[in-house]
Structure formats: C-alpha cells, structure tokens
Amino acid sequence: MIPFGKLSIRVADFLNDQSMHADGMKLFAFRGCKIVYDRGKVIGLKPLPEPWKVTDRYDDVMFVCGFKPTSRGGGPFSAVYPMSTQPGFASFRLPWYRPSNRGCPVIQPGQFSYKRGRHRGKRALRAAKRILVIRDLDDDIKIEPTDMWDYPHPDRGINIHAGGWTNRVGLNSSGCQVIQYGWFGEQWKQFKHLVYNIAGDQDVFHYTVMDSMFFELWLDAEDKTPYKRLWFGSVGLPVRQLQKALVDLGFYHKQGIDGKFRQKTHEAVRQWQAVNYPNSVPSGVVRWKMLQTLGITI
After folding, report:
1. What angle (nearest 5°) sits at the alpha carbon of residue 230, between those of residues 226 and 232?
2. Domain check: are 131 and 235 in the same one?
3. Which of 14, 104, 151, 212 has the fewest CB atoms found within 10 Å of its own CB?
4. What is the mean pLDDT of residues 158-164?
C-alpha cells in the first residue's frame, strides 16, 4: 500500500527523480489504484495488479497537492479523488474510432501541461500542449505493438473533467481524464475549487500519469537509482544529454536540443529502441540501464 501520510513530499521527490516539473499545484494520476479508508479517513492507496488494464471502472486515483497562498489561509493541502485515466468500453466502439487509422486514444505514462478551459460548456481543464496516447486500432481494448502512438493536438479534447455517477465509465470518457460522481458531485466541486480558486494564480498545471505499481516499487526501494527514468514530459539537463546522444547516433537533429522531452524526442527514442532493443516494444520511456548505455546519469 502507498501511505497517504506525507504523500505530497513523496510525489515531489518522485517527480524530481524522473526529471519532471514539481512546482506549483501538482496533479498526479495513479493509474490502476484504489483509495483505502479507515473509519472514513483516507490512509493510503492500493495498487492493482495490472495498472495499465482498461477496466471500464474508476480504477485510478487523482492526487492533488500544493500550498495555499497566504491570501487563502496558507499551508499545505492534499486530496484524492476516484477517477479513470482510461476510456470506457463503449467508447472503443464509437463509429469515428473504428476505422483502422484512428483508434480510441488511451493516455500513456508521462507528464503533460494543462490549463483552465471548457468541456462542453462547463469549467474543466484542457491540454495546453500535445500529449501522448496509444490508439487501439483493432478494437480489442488491449495495448499491443500493432497499435498506433499519437500526439493529439490540444484542440482534440483530451481534457480533465467530471465523469459519471455509476461505477462504469461508459461514454463519460473516450480518452479524457474523468473524476467520478458527476459535475455536481462533491468530488468534482472540490477539485474545481482547488484548480479555479486555491490555485487561481497558477496558469499551467503539470499533470502526471503514472502506473501505481511502479510508484510503489520506487517508494519501497532503498536505492531508487534503478527506478529513475526519462519520460514524455521530462525536462532539464538529462533530457539535453539524451537529445545530444541521439544526435550523435543519427536519430535526432542538432537544432532540436532544447531539454524538453516531447513528441520529436519521443519519436527519436522509439526509433533508437527499435534498433537496439528489437525484442521489446519501443515505448519511448528511457530506463536507467538505457541511460547508462548512453552515458547519462540522473
């Protein structure tokens, strides 16, 4: 179990380890996870055996943490909400996703930029930059090597908004990130208050999606070095070193060295992985041993 106490500190440490943004109000989705209560109080998060599996249920958790400004009382805060990072089963069969070149989008682990906006006329969060998804091309609700990686434009609507009241996700998400219990439920009201009021001065929200089992392994490890990665959304010197290494190997272009792990870097990493790790699916996530191979330390 992932203890709820001091989780905001652990999340910040994790983001720093993965070379991701850890400033301001943080939105962190634990993929494949359940909230654990004791006498009505949240005591932890329980990872599920297959965090990546599409279940059509609200089997993920949104963790929000940060510091209230002095004008709003000051001090740290944290909260958890049941959510789904995965589409509902019904969405995979929508007619506009069924053609072989455009499957239903399933968001992948990484960090993404969001801003306030509207979803179907209601207050929500909208992607500020391209995000990372896999499109399920054969409509079997399984992530496979034959499926297509994609980087939807913010206008494509992979938003964060309220989901439905029942335990089934259904058509409430066809790729969006949805918090359970509806637009008028207390969960969405509280989340919206944090985003629109408590963090009213924050323009961009860094939203991290991560498998809960990987986070738990990182959390329990005495030596966390083997669990350090570079992901879509990582930034800084390690990413610049990665980009330079890819340039030297002929997979990237010199003008693209900017220290930001986004679409072009992800595509270059996947090409490099396909050549050097032919027996595994090229995910674009650069593991610690891969970083060692490239002479990069984080």
Report:
1. 145
2. no
3. 151
4. 96
